[in-house]
Amino acid sequence: IFAAVEMAPRDPILGLNEAFNADARETKVNLGVGVYYDDNGKIPLLNAVKAAEKARLESMPPRGYQPIEGPSAYAQAVQALLFGKDSALLANGQVITAEALGGTGALKIGADFLKRLNPDATVYISDPSWENHRALFEFAGFKVENYPYYDAATRGVDFAAMKACLGGLPAGSIVVLHACCHNPTGADLTDAQWQEVVGLCRDGGLVPFLDMAYQGFADGIEPDAVAVRHFAASGLQFFVSSSFSKSFSLYGERIGALSIVTAAREESARVLSQLKRVIRTNYSNPPIHGAAVVAAVLSSPELRQMWEDELAGMRDRIRAMRTGLVEALKAEGVSQDFSFVIKQRGMFSYTGLTAEQVERLRTEFGIYAVSTGRICLAALNSRNLAYVARAIAKVVA
Ligand code: PLP
Ligand code: TYF
């Protein structure tokens, strides 16, 4: 059966973890995977999550099957974060939300649903994009192309090229957009640019698919929803995948959601019925724990405040590491201007380090980064910052 099976390539990011774990050096640092670590280098268990879990454990709830689309309390909590609790779309019944297995699972059920709706569409992802976007949509059966996005010269978005491309796509094309904290570049669109993208999607009859994996990691819960809010105000139909992996530090619980904005309540019912079919034929219904914890935190004023404070703490610590890295590089005598690191948003910095420099960081210093030069700032801390800065200074010298 398996004689002709070829060895698949490793995931370029998750594969790094395996190499890192096998490295015996005590000074090793993993700047590869996009995970938030606290200043002690540990993945935090948020106090808001602890409190919700304690209450849940004490109540010893039964473990029956969930509804196919997950609990409605969870869907409502997700919708309020994405669209704002007073959104007219919510009042009109124009949004359906299904719990999903992380942001990845949300993208996949969205992709599977779209494949049934519009099998011949091409999916467009940013150049570059999260490593898994292309493979995920290809495995769902789509042809995947890039639209221009990052401009290495300005370390920002080549918006003219992006617009020119989106403006020329055939109607029905699916456009995957990073709603905030672009992975891997940290370069986001401005408010005005989002409005232009909404206009291009409307004029071109495109299908927008917003991917929101880092709400709260740029400027805050509300400001980071700007892209979703512009699309919501446009009257268009669109998809949003969202994730609590990062914002709740619940990576392994696999908790995310797919939300779809429809034209009307009646349409929502039809769309949800088909999405439920996609879910049922994949995994029947989603797990209980992550959704219960997130819904409990977001529906309790005290726990919600605790969570917002803890999320702000993560955001502020990443910012401090950005500034710290830039200052430490200067102190190491690096003449190249790295101040762009402070302007990039979210967990990552696209450092401009070459694949050879990244390779030297690994072999000579035990510092692991993605070969594209992406590093995760959230893996820096007060103990490894100087070491990392010294190593970068050596490889760029
Ligand atoms: N989309 C983007 C842009 C991401 O960076 C990530 C990162 O993990 C995901 C989706 C997937 O999120 P999750 O881990 O919740 O599946
Ligand atoms: O980009 C990252 O590092 C995170 C984590 O297949 C991740 O989004 C990376 C690869 C992957 C799943 C999650």
Automatic annotation (TrEMBL):
This protein's record includes keyword Transferase: yes
Keywords: Aminotransferase, Pyridoxal phosphate, Transferase
Transmembrane intervals: none
Domain Aminotransferase class I/classII large: 27-392
Family: Belongs to the class-I pyridoxal-phosphate-dependent aminotransferase family.
Assembly: Homodimer.
Name of the featured protein: Aminotransferase
Protein source organism: Gulbenkiania mobilis
